[in-house]
Write a structure and sequence with these properties.
Two copies of one chain form a homodimer. By secondary structure, chain A is mainly α. Chain A has a single domain, classed as Farnesyl Diphosphate Synthase, CATH 1.10.600. Helix content of chain A is 71%, strand content 1%. A two-stranded antiparallel ribbon of chain A has the order 1-2. In chain A, β1 and β2 form a beta hairpin. The radius of gyration of chain A is 20 Å and the shape is globular.
Chain lengths: 329, 329
């Protein structure tokens, strides 16, 4: 978001962790393994559409930065990624999404039925694995996180009425939907650390996660100029109300507000209609406001790291903040 | 299934447990409570379509029959019922069912999206509650059961090809889909009991659960003469292959087999077509075979109870077997 510094890539962050991340990947494959053909087949597709392992990265960095050296770290990181995957499978099914990271979704390749069952399968496997670690503590953190995420999904369903959706509602939404799992990943990486460090990492993950989601929502308005040349506006197309619009609305004139309301009433808004609202949001300072909030949350996350001793891993956690706020896609 | 003895009703079985079952009901309401309006609303509908509390009944009887007197029994029974409810919500969503026990399903009243999220909400609440008991043992049993049930759901999706679906496939299906949770309920009621008693109750629940599902599948062919006058045949209508058909097929002549294959190829089979296949299954001994198997499983369940000391609760567990095999609906 600042153009002065060279952007931090996730690849840079992950390079020193590569052997540990490979181990996480192995653990993930072991945990989801099934002796039932259909599940094996779905698993294979899941691994193809798998993400960037940002949550496992945070967990491993939290482990290193607290000097905890938890021997369970790779397994815990795999479980966190598995919970993330289970959520994506259900999300795609709920949203009837066809693509995820450019790959066809489970519901589009197989069926809606298989997606629902598969999400349940993955989540219950995650719980079994945690039980096998013979420690209630990670279960305590991650069962709360998972429940929070379901409440977030419910909140998401109501985020379609711009005139009645407040910034407070939005905050609750992004905390539960996105930040809770990033926070949980950081906390579970510090289970063996001093309570103050564990709490600081939990708060770090929460602030980072909120910034992460705000940037995500901003990118929908700003776009990646180098890639598409214009913003996608897919949230507006789906009538999803996010921070830029919430912040812009009270500053808009009556004509612009009417444009917003018209768009929200249109089942399939045209590109031109979407670009008009994006311009109105930008003109009314909605993008600046959202950027500002993401940066404040980034500073807050940064402040939490003061609780930890200086180390290369702590620097990598700092760089993770830069990665989150500077990313272009 | 035997007409000599007076049928045992679930009400009879539950009468002595009424105060404890009321406590289970209170626990259930406490556990699912949410401070989010939409979830509260869905919960209210859930309680209206709630079932007969057979699983909590078994858990409480197991607790009493082993003399364990586990102070957590009501909570554990509520969690088991909650897992059952979560499964029904996802099942109805996967099957696009409109009614469950004569009440509209969550997916039909609210939406498919809300059903998927709500099932996840209920299950993660169940896990949180178990973690709060500070004992990994119930979690160990119930996380495996939940995972088994998801595998069962996957197996169910493949139970549509009569010529390729064996009795062994069917056994695996009903074990994972139905019997695993009844078995888990009985086992979790005996966590504080001697290991031999706990193991006997686990096996009792497995045999009882398999008998339960076989009788369920039989009732679809036999019907409740006093209610409808003819079998519903809804499994055949949905092209679900169950034990009566599996057992009958090898004994059928070529003409009857062709009737079966034709029905399976017909997207919406007519009533007459269904009644013809039901008659063919009956003529080929499919119903007798399934009845016979249910009775053998009932005997097996009965035998497991020898491991327990004589008590009114043990007699009630015996009566539960009679309830399962004698029920007409």
């Amino acid at each position: 978001m600042s153009s002065q510094t060279a952007p931090v890539s996730l690849g840079d962050l992950q390079r020193p962790l590569r052997p540990r991340l490979d181990r996480v990947q192995q653990e993930l494959r072991r945990i989801v393994e099934a002796d039932f053909g259909l599940i094996t087949e779905v698993n294979a597709h899941l691994f193809q559409m798998q993400g960037k392992m940002f949550r496992p990265t945070l967990l491993l960095l939290a482990d290193e930065a607290t000097g905890a050296g938890d021997p369970r770290a790779a397994t815990l990181a795999a479980v966190v990624e598995l919970i993330h995957l289970a959520t994506l499978v259900h999300d795609d099914s709920v949203d009837h999404s066809v693509l995820r990271r450019g790959m066809p979704t489970i519901n589009s390749i197989f069926s809606h039925q298989i997606s629902v069952i598969m999400g349940d399968y993955l989540y219950s496997r995650a719980v079994i694995e945690l039980v096998g670690l013979n420690d209630l503590e990670p279960l305590r953190v991650l069962s709360r996180v998972t429940n929070e995420m379901t409440v977030g999904e419910m909140r998401q369903l109501l985020a379609h009425e711009p005139l009645h959706y407040s910034e407070e509602d939005y905050d609750l939404l992004i905390r539960s939907k996105t930040a809770s799992l990033l926070s949980g990943a950081c906390e579970v990486g510090a289970l063996l650390a001093a309570p103050a460090e564990r709490a600081a990492l939990r708060r770090y993950g929460m602030a980072l996660g909120m910034a992460f989601q705000i940037v995500d929502d901003l990118l929908d308005y700003v776009g990646d100029a180098s890639v598409t040349g214009k913003p996608s506006g897919s949230d507006l197309r789906e009538h999803k109300v996010t921070l830029p619009l919430i912040a812009a609305l009270p500053r808009m004139g009556p004509a612009e507000r009417q444009e917003v309301e018209a768009l929200m009433r249109t089942p399939e808004p045209a590109d031109g209609q979407i670009q008009t609202v994006i311009a109105a949001v930008a003109d009314s300072g909605g993008l600046d406001y959202a950027r500002e909030r993401a940066l404040r949350l980034a500073q807050q996350a940064d402040g939490e790291l003061e609780e930890l001793p200086a180390s290369p891993a702590r620097e990598a956690l700092r760089d993770s903040i830069a990665y989150v706020v500077d990313r272009r896609r």
